[in-house]
Amino acid sequence: MKQLLITILLSGSCGFLAAQKTVKTPAIYKPVRTEMYKKGWIDFNKNGVKDIYEDPSAPVDARIEDLLKQMTLEEKTCQMVTLYGYKRVLKDDLPTPEWKNQLWKDGIGAIDEHLNGFQQWGLPPSDNEYVWPASRHAWALNEVQRFFIEETRLGIPTDFTNEGIRGVESYKATNFPTQLGLGHTWNRELIRQVGVITGREARMLGYTNVYAPILDVGRDQRWGRYEEVYGESPYLVAELGIEMVRGMQQDYQVAATGKHFIAYSNNKGGREGMSRVDPQMSPREVEMVHVYPFKRVIREAGLLGVMSSYNDYDGFPIQSSYYWLTTRLRGEMGFRGYVVSDSDAVEYLYTKHNTAKDMKEAVRQSVEAGLNVRCTFRSPDSYVLPLRELVKEGGLSEEVINDRVRDILRVKFLVGLFDHPYQTDLKGADEEVEKAENEEVALQASRESIVLLKNDQDVLPLDISGIKKIAVCGPNADECSYALGHYGPLAVEVTSVLKGIQEKTDGKAEVLYSKGCELVDANWPESELIDFPLTEEEQKEIDKAVSQAKEADVAVVVLGGGQRTCGENKSRSSLDLPGRQLDLLKAVVATGKPVVLVLINGRPLSINWADKFVPAILEAWYPGAKGGKAVADVLFGDYNPGGKLTVTFPKTVGQIPFNFPCKPSSQIDGGKNPGMDGNMSRANGALYAFGYGLSYTSFEYSDLKITPAVITPNQKTYVTCKVTNTGKRAGDEVVQLYVRDVLSSVTTYEKNLAGFERIHLKPGETKEVSFPIDRKALELLNADMYWVVEPGDFTLMVGASSTDIRLNGTLTVVDCINDSTPQSKENEAPISASTNQETVNNVVDNNPTTFWEGNKGDYITFALQNEAKVDGISIAFHRDNGLETDFEIQLSSGGGQFLTVYSGTVKEYHKLLNFPFKGTTASDLRIVLGSDRVGITEIKLPQIKK
Questions:
Q1: I need a labelling partner for 711 at 20 to 30 A (CA). Which of 206, 228, 326, 785 fits?
Q2: pTM
Q3: Has residue 14 got a pLDDT over 70?
Q4: Nearest to residue 403, comparing CAs of 325, 321, 306, 323?
Q5: Is 152 helix (H, G, I), strand (E, B) or coil?
């Protein structure tokens, strides 16, 4: 089978890859050592007693502490490392007697990519009998898990980790567009569905932790991993990241591990050097662009994992930075999961950064900084043994080890590894993975990710009734490998663009195909710098494509990039079409036939010639296994494209850095008159701007309202407008809201994305779109690096892109609302809040399903009866992610000064909890939130003013 796989992959075929053996697998998995498995609990330490850590009803923190006190140093340190799976480091697919003599006889923190089919870069998927089908794979992971539960002293389950940025990485699974394509959908609900499916399929396959989403913000289009970012806007990355994590972690089906923390995606000149060194950014840019998504996803979605990045920032490697991994990540952001290293990040401290003298010192620095688990393609001994030496020598405190292990165990308890360590529904795995409903979501994602960049004279959609022959050419026309790379499903059926067109036109038109050229030429990438003449063979292949184009009614040219030109460690020196692709395009256009250019690629390309001379251009990114069908649906009008750019297309690499958001006037320069007698010295402006995208229909914007138009920094306002489909086709529009601080103490971005909604409208249909605006959209980092909202005017802009603004208005922020404004009436109410004033009465309506919600620092205030003496309050809290949160109760005796009388932590939700404090006479009581997205459903406070 291996030879078959190699032949299929190297030929670029899209056929289904069958598993090597068919082994009968039971429908339900049952472990062997039945005496351990009690009714409702598991005797992990085999002592016949239900220890606290074995009790599913005990609080998580109590279970952690009970287990931790039973662990030896050997067992603790084994939890702090990953064992890479079959054929990566682990030579066995299933446990062997030899495992009792290996390091992991005392347990292991995680096993990564075990039997997921990936072997090495450039190799075909594994043909091991336990890779597929899904039931057999889940059975095998259960057998590995059984070793750790039944054959180690304390029975601590391992965390099965895996990749999953475009579907879980498995031999087969639901295959989505790469993350850049998903970003171009601008569809929160769709991304949540992608997350749910990715997490659910992963858990059914036996995995409990998935390394996704990528929260890096795109900044340099040359970067090889641009294909993996959602886009260039930190707000959009945060919004989609929140939905992806909420979907993946739904019901704690898996833990999501976001990457790469932090300041990873702006390496100098697009160069990577494996350690991604020397990002050139100011501290303010790091905070506003790169920290922002992580902070929000952790606080609002309860992200359970973070991958620490290779790179340094300002000379300090992130991997050894206590400031980043502890002070900021855990202290400020409230992260309660565990940090895993990105591959050789620990080793790079001494092999590349040269800030540690050897591996032992690198281990010490990493653990002290806040690393929980080292994850790389090396033996776990290489990390664990020096770690143990450090503790025994006094180089590391065992209490630090305890802290790191607590985080690891917390995640394992939260995802249910101590209560349901096995995936017992083996038959269900076969039914769930890649099921029809999941595939429909994948197809919708592929469709929604496509962006129409150009459509002169309405060349698209193509009218099949008037076409007899279609010429299809280009190196990506019959290519499938873009959907089968690392970090996602490996061997699924892929519909190429050619196949999609053939299926769409079957019996209606003849499809002529020629490749036209290879993705790159023999001299690439040097051919980006030197113009090598076409070889005879290259000219012959182009001539064949031209001949077919002349014979056809329309030509579809499918160009772009692929695994040779884009991906990890594949940054480029140019953004032009690689190889002979432009030569092919020019030759086909010269035939005079209508031409449609379809781009399949992982980064924006400087397609200046195409933009000027090709009438229709579709950007499909890497559209997943269903990409060919999605492209064909768009070409022939069965689907109206509605994707919008989340990245900027520069005209040339000479403009980089060139992206969104940007400082005022930073994207233009020099004169405006070209030619011999002009004053223009450089190409200005973007080829295509952030937010741009066309449709087969048209949309009209109207009736902008800002309510209220005057607020204080902690209040919320709503921006509403109406959007009407004024064309003849149903279609999607991505309505975008941008904010500009008119006058500020420091320079702010020209436009900040502050809201977006993808809406579907029938011809003639009108919908009202509403955007909430709170302090997050108005904040800036002041001169002292504090997040503040400065009073003044803010321009609110609603439009179809960052440059196509249709409506605008002004929001005014004041220190306080004066008595002449309508808002002052709200302040007279017995209950007021710093935000979401319209929902404050939900806390006294005796309805446990309604609530008032705010973010960290927000508060709700209750006016008390005259001379009221208060000594306690009952509060029922609400939080979607169920994570603990801090809060304070404050009292005021008048004059606006509040003093804290109670500080506590909420661990239970939707239950009235009593909080007593020293009684005193007060005029107002205030509850202050300590985290984002925390709600109060009900309070009991008899002293509230009537």
A1: 785
A2: 0.87
A3: no
A4: 325
A5: coil
